[in-house]
Amino acid sequence: MSKYRMLKYLRQEVLPTTMCLGCGGGTVLNIFANAVDELGIDPKDLVMVSGIGCSAWIPSPYFKADTLHTTHGRPIAFATGIKVGLPDKYVVVISGDGDLAGIGGNHLLHAARRNIDIAVILVNNFIHGMTGGQVAPTTPFGAKTTTTPYGNIEHPLNISETVAAAGASYVARWTTANPFMLLKSIKKALTKKGFALVEVISQCPVQFGQRNKLRSAPDMLRWFLKNSVPLKKAMKMSPEELEGKIVIGEFIDRERVEFVEELNKIIRGVYVNAD
Ligand SMILES: Cc1ncc(C[n+]2csc(CCOP(=O)(O)OP(=O)(O)O)c2C)c(N)n1
């Protein structure tokens, strides 16, 4: 048996990966595989969907399940169709912050509002990584990117708070420096009825770190740990005190009527009435 227990979940013919040295994508892939393993989910029951970007490569082509690598910003739209057509499958989107909260932001909001039973793992590396490190809607204020060489003058979108407010059943945010909490939340997201989002703050030392005095993955992980504030503590802090901090924890965990179940009730009703 291989000493790499999670290898059985990977398409070995496409290894080694295209990820840069120190990329957080490997951590996310590893933890996701552990979540599937611990829940005893048969990968045949999984459909993985991603958009375009480095983070979109985490499920596709590496994870050995049905994977759909879609167009930029559109994985949630594709996932919605899959879940409606195949309601018994676990439908999981793994993609980047630019993909899901930038160009695809509208799909993210409306999937949360509908509360459709999809698990989304949004890998937030604060940047459009694949295309060379351009500013994203998640880039911290003041951070340097290729398109903000003098510092970002825009405020970042708080993805987790926005998705929780839009109506999701489950929302959590962790960093790649919190692997055990991340594992717990991914397991919850996979089993939660309704829309579930796990936002993973992840390191991109190449495109983000190097321009912001965080040259290596350990530098970035130390920075995550130093700047993270647990949600309970954050609730007692002012917006000024929270400026530049990473609030971590579970933002919402609730039961709420789910879209596909409601849709199927209507479809069954229409068929019964038609008989
Ligand atoms: C319609 C369209 N616009 C732009 C692009 C170029 N593009 C490819 S990947 C990408 C950025 C992806 O960023 P993100 O989702 O944050 O993922 P990361 O690479 O940082 O993991 C962009 C803008 C594209 N492929 N399609």
Detailed description of the structure:
- The chain is of the alpha/beta class and 275 residues long.
- It has a single domain (5-274), classed as Thiamin diphosphate (ThDP)-binding fold, Pyr/PP domains (Rossmann fold).
- 36% of the residues lie in helices and 16% in strands.
- The chain has helices at residues 25-39, 75-85, 97-103, 105-114, 159-166, 179-191, 217-227, 231-234, 239-242, 259-274, and strands spanning 46-50, 66-69, 90-96, 119-124, 170-175, 196-201, 228-230, 246-253.
- An eight-stranded mixed sheet has the order 2-1-3-4-6-5-8-7, sandwiched between helices.
- Strand 5 (170-175), helix 6 (179-191) and strand 6 (196-201) form a beta-alpha-beta unit.
- The longest helix is centred in the last third of the chain and has 16 residues, at 259-274.
- The radius of gyration is 19 Å and the shape is globular.
- The mean pLDDT is 96.
- Bound molecules: thiamine diphosphate (TPP).
- Thiamine diphosphate (TPP) binds at residues 52-55, 72, 95-99, 125, 127-131, 136.
